Amino acid sequence: MTGVERTDVLVVGSGFGGAIAAYHLAAGGAGVVILERGPWLETEEFEHDYKLGSSYTRIFDFTVGDGMNVLGGNCVGGGSVIYFAAMPRAPRFVFERQGGIGRRMWPASISRDTLDPWYDRVAESIPVSTQGWEDVSYPGGLWAAACDHSGRTANPVPVAIDNDTCVKCNWMMAGCRFGAKRSLLTNYLPAAVAHGASVRPLHEVQRITRNDDGGYRVHYDVIDGEDYRIRGESGAIDARIVVLAAGAGATPVILQRSEPELGPMPHAVGRYFSGNGERLVTAVMNEERVRDVLGLEREDGTAYEAFHIGKGPCVANWDRLDGSLPEFTRYSLEQLYFPPGLGTILAQVPGGLAQGTGPSWFGASKKEMLKRWKSWLIIFEMIEDSNEGVFGPPPPTGNAVRISQQMLGRGTLRYDPSPSTLRAWAQADAEAKEILERDGLGHAEAWSNDVVGAYTVHPLASCRIGDDPATSALDDRHELRGHPGIFVTDGAAVPGALTVNPAMTIAALAERAVPGIVEAARERGVQVRYGAPAPDGGTSGRRGVAHLVGRR
């Protein structure tokens, strides 16, 4: 173990929760160190292939659980590097949800109205635009036309993309080589570094201990850049404040492993996990019916065959995002490009379940389906789940037992969907199928949990905020109950499923948490202030929240 370093603030993770906190604290004058488990890749290092050892396998973390699998970012910039840049705000009803506990999950201090100024701060720092139909990819247009044909509405999704720079290569999930996606590598992180923050890639945090002076010691291992199973030297850094933002699949594991030395954790640490209610439906579209029924045709004369052309989610159906509807019947249906790999393997052959033959994810029928991959259309469902996930005892190191050189690990998360969650999925499945199959447009099938369980690319709620200590790990300013000076600002803090892509909400909550972190740091002797502009110098967002933070 190397000598112990010291800093004012230690941030674990460099995704939305970590980068936003790091920027504001560094800009406010605090010494900030960011420990990131994954590598730090420059724009030109993002590769357009899926080979082992490429950027694609290096920047992802796929953790297999029991009934739930989690796909997340593993690089400097975290999920912002691999996300599809969809940035909608959560519907108003989300903040009144009761979930599986029978009472409001969110703290009383947070509603859509009180969070809107913080959403505005994010939109100023990560420019978010509402796309016009001219920006929409062909698959997005096909989904919009299918929705219209079935009497539904369709909406272009707000995105953090420079549409003038985007070349519509559809490799967004492997990192943007063209600088069009406004990941954290283009705003908060370089601004944090400019203010003196130190980013340490390939540093995996294992546990936290408490020092005699009330501060904390964060223990880490250095990870090999090619084989993530190989660990190099260990080290530790002392800090007055610790901000955990390692992701909802890793933050609770760090706290669980810290408990023997740090002391008892709140009951909710590692419980109430939500997969944001996510599920995929894959359709094979009938080219002739697409032309005849919807009147669509590309410049080369084909009706569709454009599954791979364009970019990530462009168009969503939000008809069911109606606050007057009962909980567990509200959801969104969003066109999505899920690239080859896991998506190709687990897509179900349409008709197998209806015929009683079970999930058809391999065999002759699957081979025939793969021949028509250009005619696929994938719909991403986001329902309201019941926060059923629970983490078991932590593995010896990391968030999972590494199975392969990169990307793949076996975790301790168990997820047993409740009847409410299963009914919600079934309802969303049926509507997506009805839209996609009307008048013979195509044949659709939802991915089945029977193959490998559920899956999520947006893990949430494993250390959530709330007013009730029995069901929340954090108070409403994101401080860990019973452990002053430790804050959680990533998706783990979000109380439950949002029915839309969560990046904008995670970022807004992180922005909202910063004044409280600054206050706690000052109480611990750190010379820091709150009030930095947006990373590009904009101040309108700062003025918009001034009345919410007082003189901090």
Automatic annotation (TrEMBL):
Which residues are in the Glucose-methanol-choline oxidoreductase N-terminal domain? 69-271
The coenzyme or cofactor needed here is: FAD
Key words of the record: Cholesterol metabolism, FAD, Flavoprotein, Isomerase, Lipid metabolism, Oxidoreductase, Steroid metabolism, Sterol metabolism
Q: What is its EC number?
A: 1.1.3.6, 5.3.3.1
* Residue span, Glucose-methanol-choline oxidoreductase C-terminal domain: 415-510
Pathway(s) this gene product operates in, as recorded in its UniProt entry: Steroid metabolism; cholesterol degradation
Instruction: Extract the ranges annotated as region (Disordered).
Output: 530-552
Q: Which family does it belong to?
A: Belongs to the GMC oxidoreductase family.
Which protein are we looking at?
Cholesterol oxidase
Q: What is the lineage of its organism?
A: Bacteria, Bacillati, Actinomycetota, Actinomycetes, Streptosporangiales
